[in-house]
Each structure stands twice: as C-alpha cells, then as structure tokens.
Write a structure and sequence with these properties.
192 residues, alpha/beta, 2 domains, four-stranded mixed beta sheet, 9 strands, binds zinc ion
Length: 192
C-alpha cells in the first residue's frame, strides 16, 4: 500500500500493458476497487480493472474469461466503430440544426415541450424531464441523420410516456421505423 505524508492511502491508478496469449490488455490497477472488471471498448481494446492483486490472480481471471473475451472481440470487430470529431459542436449552426429537427418532430407528433436545452454529455444522447424539458447532447449533431431523428423522437415520446414501456416504443416506432438501425449505429459511435 502506498501512503502519503499524512498517512492516507494514495488512490492513484496505475496503467500497464499485459500480454495474455497474444491478446493485448490494458490493465488499470485501482487500489480503491472492490472487484475486478473486464470490458471490451468500441475499438475492441481489452480493459482490465482490478484492485491490487497478484499476477497469478490476473492470469486465472483471464483464463476463466478467455472465451468471453475472444467472442466479444469478434463481435465488436464485425461492427466497427463510427469515429467522429467534436469540431463545431458548440456552434450556433449546430444548435440550429438540432432545433429544426426537434421542431419538425414535435409538430409531426403533436407534442409540446417546455424548454429545449443543449449540453455536452458523456454517456447520454438526451433526456426528458417531468417538467417537459428536453435536453440533447451537443455531440448528437455529429451523428448520422437517422440517429439524430431517433434520439429526438425518443425524447419527445417521453412527454407522453415517462418510461420505456411497450406503448412508448410503439410511439417511437410510428415516427421512426428504423429505430433498431439507429440504436445500433449509436452504440458504435466513438468521438476523438
Ligand atoms: Zn428514454
């Protein structure tokens, strides 16, 4: 355990690269973790997060998870990432593009929101509050049109159903028949 001058545990994480049966693995050691996690990112990188553990523990964990890792990598590689940059996402032009689509769908669906907000978000494309405020991720403007329309119709549909019930999905599907494709594309988007 690493302690600082005051005797507190240093909670820094250490990144190392491991090689396991020709698989390149980024190992992030975080002393504060309780469990270990393996994930495959959209670019098929293998990320292993663990507390301070022995190399034997890591080896056994990887052995146990090897089949899952290889399968997951294969499926990730068959759906390659869609890479976009963030240029211009804060511009008025980007905002206007999204506002136009929101107004289009609100009219088409016969729905009214109280306010439209834009934020740069990490893990969500949009949200709809109980006070009918629609928030869109500024990054959305960079995604394919079918994704933009899907996210907007999805958030607007929450003005009617504040859940992801069957009725909610039916409503979205009525306006966006290609929702499944849009969702699949959104799951592959990576920003650099
Ligand atoms: Zn939703």
């Amino acid at each position: 355990m690493v302690l600082n001058k005051q005797g507190y545990k240093i909670r820094s994480s250490i990144n190392t690269n491991l090689n396991f049966k020709e698989l390149q693995i980024t190992h992030i050691c975080k002393p504060q973790l309780k469990n270990s996690y393996i994930s495959i990112d959209k670019k098929a990188n293998i990320i292993l997060k663990t507390p301070q553990v022995s190399s034997t523990y890591i080896h056994n964990l990887l052995l146990k998870k090897e089949v899952w890792i290889r399968k997951k990598i294969q499926s990730t590689l068959s759906h390659p990432p869609l890479i976009f940059n963030l240029d211009g996402i804060h511009s008025q032009k980007s905002k206007d593009i999204l506002i136009k689509r929101v107004e289009h769908f609100a009219k088409k669906m016969g729905l009214q929101y109280s306010e439209l907000k834009f934020r740069k978000m990490k893990s969500r494309w949009g949200s709809c509050s109980s006070t009918k405020v629609i928030t869109l991720n500024k990054k959305l403007v960079k995604t394919p049109d079918i994704c933009v329309d899907y996210v907007i119709a999805h958030e607007l549909a929450h003005l009617v159903h504040m859940n992801h019930s069957k009725q909610f999905h039916t409503l979205v599907q009525t306006y966006i028949p290609y929702s499944a494709k849009a969702k699949e594309l959104l799951s592959r988007i990576v920003f650099e």
